[in-house]
Amino acid sequence: MTAQDSATHSSTIAVEAPDTASPPTRGTLLAGLGVLAFSLTFPSTAWGLESFGPWSLVAVRSALAALIAGAFLLALRVPLPARRHWAGLAVVAGGVVVGFPLLTTLALQTSTTSHAAVVVGLLPLTTAAFAAIRTGRRPSRTFWIAAVSGAVVVLAFTLQQSGGALSTGDLYLFGALLVCAAGYTEGGRLATLMPGWQVIGWALILCLPLMLVGSVLALSFEPVHLNAHGVAGLIWVAAGSTFFGLYVWYRGMAAIGIPKASQLQLAQPLLTLVWSVTLLGESLSPAAPLAAAAVLVCIAVTQRAKSS
Predict the structure, then answer these.
(1) Residue 191 contacts residue 199 (beta carbons within 8 Å)
(2) 283 to each of 8, 43, 180, 256, how far by Cα in Å?
């Protein structure tokens, strides 16, 4: 969520009481729950792939999340966003609702969740770079040194794990970084104009017609083999990661501020490594935790680097 750190900076100017009234302790708890939900995304996706094809999993996941979001928006009688915001919501939808889930799901067909966690651990740095371009802010030299160092660590890790050449899964993961960074950056800008949870809610609704059609088509072409893991994985990535995680994350971020919330997210790649071992039984290579820790150090430096 580094993109929101750069793009919104003073997001506390939002006047909607539901996102700003929570006390700091509750805000920290909510943001922490968001990080926990995000850390389970890759293992849950791996489970979902036991029952569904990649296209089916992504389409059904997004459709279910959109229906949940629609129920919340309807129950709270949230008015439609202004027409000028829909283009930005489309960017959020394309990056966060469709692009990132699809590309990471395709990657997890050949990559382990631990490998994907390390690569996608670079996301805060990628979003910060997008935010700098989008907002015109100029991060300090220290920031860029740390960002480039993190990118080098991840690239070296992927090359070492792939035998000296990038695999197809790695290309999917790097593509996911780019589209998600764009979505986070635009979402950060919109979060200064409406509560952050409504940003993801309306982005999901925007995708609902496409995802319903996609679900029907994908399920008709890809085989479905239902089992407990597959169903649990689908339910979690839809309700847990896509909606609940982003809902509590944005509410917590509004309560305690973006910088503090971003610090909590530093634990996400390491949590995913833990889940990959405990839930999936994966064996970690010695390079995985070392690379994840190095990326976290680089992210921590960027969090503290002041813009010039």
Answers:
(1) yes
(2) 39, 14, 28, 36
Helix and strand tally (H, E) in the chain? 17, 0
For residues 108 and 122, give the distance between their C-alpha atoms in angstroms, rounded to a whole number: 17
> Rounded CA gap, 215 and 230, in Å?
16
Give how far the C-alpha of residue 219 lies from the chain's centroid of Cα atoms, to the nearest Å.
25
- Compute CA 271 distance to the chain's CA centroid, rounded to the nearest angstrom: 14
Q: What tokens were used for 175?
A: 């593509």
pLDDT digits (tens, 9 = 90+) for 20-58: 444 567 878 887 888 899 899 999 999 999 999 999 999
Q: How many angstroms separate the CA atoms of 137 and 131, rounded? A: 8
DSSP 17-69: HHHH-S-HHHHHHHHHHHHHHHHTHHHHHHHHTTTS-HHHHHHHHHHHHHHHH
Strand spans (E) along 55-198: none
CB proximity list for 153: less than 8 A, separation 6 or greater:
291, 294, 295, 298
- pTM value is 0.78
**Cα separations (Å) of 269 from 42, 176, 184, 234, 295?**
10, 15, 18, 21, 9
Specify whether the CB–CB gap between 156 and 294 falls below 8 A.
no
Q: Which of 123, 118, 114 is nearest to 273 (CA)?
A: 114
What confidence category does residue 254 fall into, taking pLDDT thresholds of 50, 70 and 90? low
DSSP-derived letter for residue 255 is H
